[in-house]
Amino acid sequence: MSKVRAPKSPGRPGQASSWLATPTLVFLILVILLPLLITVVYSFLSQPSLGTGVKWVFSTDAYRQIFVQEKLDGTTAFDTRYLKVLWNSFYYAGIATITTLILGIPVAMWIATRPVRFRALLVLAVTLPFWTSVLIRTYAVRQILDETGPIGGFLKIIGVGNSYQILYTPWATIIGLTYTFIPFMILPIYASAERFDFRYAEAGYDLGAKRWTVLRRIVIPGIRPGIIAGIALVFIPGLGSFLQPDMLGGGKTNMIANVIANNFGQARNWPFGSALSVFLLIFTVLFVLMVTTGVRSRGDQVRLI
Amino acid sequence: MTDAHLDIRQVTKTFPTPEGGVVVALDRVDLAIAEGEFFVMLGPSGCGKTSLLRCIAGLEYPDSGEILLDGSRIDDIPAYARPVNTVFQSYALFPHMSVAQNVAFGLEMERLPKNEIKSRVAAALEQVKLTGLDRRKPTQLSGGQQQRVALARALAKQPKVLLLDEPLSALDLKLRRGMQVELKRLQRETGITFVFVTHDQEEAMTMGDRIAVFNEGKIVQVGSPQEIYRRPVNGFVADFIGETNLIKVTVGSGGFIFPGGGVLARELLAEDCEVPAAGECLLAVRPEDFELVDTDAAVVGEVVDVIFTGGLIRLHVRAGDQEIVAALPSHGAVVPAVGDQTRLRPITKAARTVGS
Predict the structure, then answer these.
(1) B135/A contact by beta carbon, under 8 A
(2) Cβ–Cβ of A206/B85 closer than 8 Å?
(3) Model pTM?
(4) Every domain of chain A and the residues it spans
């Protein structure tokens, strides 16, 4: 059997040598795989007795530390603190996913049903927050939520503002996460909704379905790829959120990224920080696998990995 | 007209244009459709036929006027509550549902018991000859099969009126012919009133018990295919249905003076059409209604084109400032050639006046 190969003609339109992708691949390896590798390696090293960094002695102590607490009297006990923090991460990322979903679907559908000339403008408006740094925007949210801010001021004027306190509560974290991630929910759903053929909805009405039934049984399944992409785009980075719980939650609602940051910073325990990172990564990958297998079994055209 | 099954009274529908203007899609349309009728709404695109269909379905609401079904108004109730179902031009089969799920959808909305849904889905699929494909997704079906699913989905609801919005336009000619026959069969078997929208006059004549010809938001003529073809009320209908020569003639004492000088005697005109006392008027003559004559010719002119189409030979004849098309049987003894002078006359009672 001789293999038939397409002739290598340099002039084929739309085709280029795969070597052209090399610079990008090298760059991606440098900024994604290498740091990941370093993190994994560090997580199996020891903490130096003085200063920051790592001691090049193999150890699984960092992983042990996630689950086991060594008490001052030398005894050990099962430690649920870090599992709770991980749970916090899932909890807040999950809540943020639900709130962005509930708020994002109507917005995306609304944009998708506007006349074409308005749509580009509205999409631009959704992406407007990206024009400034998330740090600055989080400060802005803090100002808004603060008791001296516009909401607090208004509530004081109408006479109910005395017990107003949202900043430095879990609510502030949720509001901050929702605000930060909602464009990542709106945009993929919009992309699906724009392609959605609303004649399906008409057919639904024609066959006797009322508004909510049409929405639930025809429209939502029709924009399902966008919803799944949106969930992944909000939930995964949501798990690693760091700014919102710190700046808005006042450190009272620690998420795992805060603990990781702390171990690379003040606590100077790089192996432990690395181990927590790997721990988080495992759960993230599990989540992605869960979503993609769920999607594949339904035969949708969505690929996350 | 209270005994009409579907009664459309003075229905007007307008749409705003992006430029800020208004398009009148339906202009005070009156129409009465009988029970069990295969009724065709025919017209060029933008004539309002689809707008009327959507008003009946409840997907649009008329600006004014009434739509009655069996004597009670339906134009103010929402689409989901009307005993009327639609087969869409694009089929609009739900892509995430299987064939059986698509057909069952409408029945689930009626909250029927599960086993009844199952048997009615099976019956509907059998009716359109799709048994065995119930687990397929719409994307795994051919265009013709999708069409059948759309039909089954609407028929399963056992509607009082089935609306069909150019359902065959996406099919190739051969498939379309087959579906035309099948639709006629289904309509006979079910006894459901079919309201069928098309822009294809041949399809309209093949299928319709009666046809309404639409133009610019109004119904120009309603009648059986024969009536519409043989007795068009005006030049638009004559021209739109089949092929027609619209010939500008002068009314003279002896008859109608054709361009090029030929004369058609008054007695040869169809009986039931109005003839102005004098001046100019339009005569409509079908190409197949011409015959070659030796004397008393109405059309005298030079043959500019001869096209052999099988059973018929089409002659393009230049008479005065007009080109007239005649279709003569190809078994005729004499076939004129390009450049010949020829003499033609409409056969008796075939030419009609259609206004000026």
Answers:
(1) no
(2) yes
(3) 0.80
(4) 81-269
